[in-house]
Design brief:
Layout lengths: L1 E6 L2 E5 L2 H9 L8 H12 L6 E6 L2 E8 L4 H5 L7 H8 L2 H4 L7 E14 L6 E14 L2 H13 L16 E7 L7
Amino acid sequence: MNLYLRYFDKEVLVNNVDEAINFLNSIGEIVITPELEADIREYAASDVFFPKRYKIRPRVYFIVIKTDAATMLDFKEKKAVRSNNVEKERTAAPAVMRLNEVRPGWYEGSIDFKRVQMVPGTGKFQYRDTHFVAMVKAESGIDCYNKIVEHLRQRVDDRSQFPSSKGKNFKFRYMGLAKDMVK
């Protein structure tokens, strides 16, 4: 793992923390304290891939970025930088990634939405959290979502609120092909 360091227009790609400390020592405005050196060493040894910035004085920082890039050109062309998107893809729900995948058959879809209901006795309306589950014949996860929401819109108050298909309040599971769809 290499480290990229930048302070204004001064930048370097180094192989280890000692080279990084030497680079920082070569910049007169940066004072390397034992705490700063320990923190840089800890960052380099950790599993964290977010860029780290260190304050020199108010509104003046230097940054340190971990990278797999072997050369500065590779780093600049973003060939080996682990971006936040890579981390998000690892942690993203697989269902969201498969939402638009066309796969005809039966889906079990569940949705948690805010349903408007009248309170008996007062005649006032309030939002109530409602959980709805249905088996739907659909082409994809998004088609399943659209069919469930269309069904509910015909049966609940127009002021009810439905979540995004990509949010945590909608889940779907592919159950398989229907017998009449098998060839």
